[in-house]
Amino acid sequence: MGGMSSLLAVLDAAEGEPTAVELRARSYELLGDLIGRTVVDVGCGSGRAVGELAARGARAVGVDLDPAMIDVARRRWPAGGFHVGDVYRLPLETGSVSGYRADKVLHMLDEPARAVAEARRVLVPGGRAVLLGQDWDLIAIDSDQPAATRRLVHAKADSLPSPRVARRYRNLLLDAGFTDPVVEVRTAVFTDDTALALVRRITEEEGWLAEQAERARTHRIFVAVPIFLAAARA
User: pTM for the complete prediction?
Assistant: First the structure.
C-alpha cells in the first residue's frame, strides 16, 4: 500500500494546484447544466472530480481501469457512483448520460478515437463531452541546454501512446459525430518544487536534472505546460 499512498500524495498535491482547480471548474462549466443529470468522469482516479460534480448537483459516476483507485474513490467520495471499467467499453447503457468528461486520459490510449466514439454512444442527444489534457510535445522548460531540453521533451512524448492527442481533440470530436466544438487553451506555469517534480517525470538524465535542481534552489526554475480543453455536443 506504500506505493499507492505515495501515488495518492502526488495526485492530491497536483490536484490542489490553483491552475488544476481552475481547469476542473472550467471543465464542469463546459459540460453545461448538469443538476439532476448523470455525468461520467472517465479515468476518474481517486475520484475528486466525481465528488466535485456531485456537490454541484449532478448524478456523478466515475469509471477507472484500476480497482485499487476505485476502492480509494469509493471511500473518499461516497456521494459518487464508481465502477471498474474500460474507456473503450464503458459499463453504461447507450444514451444514458448527459455529460462525459475525460481529464488527462486520451494521451495514455493507443486508440483515442475509439474512446471518443464510446463517449458518443453513452451520451444522450444534446449531451456534452469535455476532453482536457496536455500536449506532451509543447512543454516549455527554461534551460541553459536548449538542444538537450528539446531532445528530452520529445523523447518523453514519444514514450507515450498518444502524446499529441490534445491538439486533435476538436477533430476527434467532429469525426465521432459531435457538433458545435469549442476549444480553449490554458497554460499551467510552475516555478517551485512542483516544477522540479515535473521535470523529473520527463527524464532521469542526471546532468540535465542537476541544472534544473540548481534552478529550483535559486528560485529560477520555470516550466510552462499548455492544457487544451475541448467540448462538443452529441
Answer: 0.91
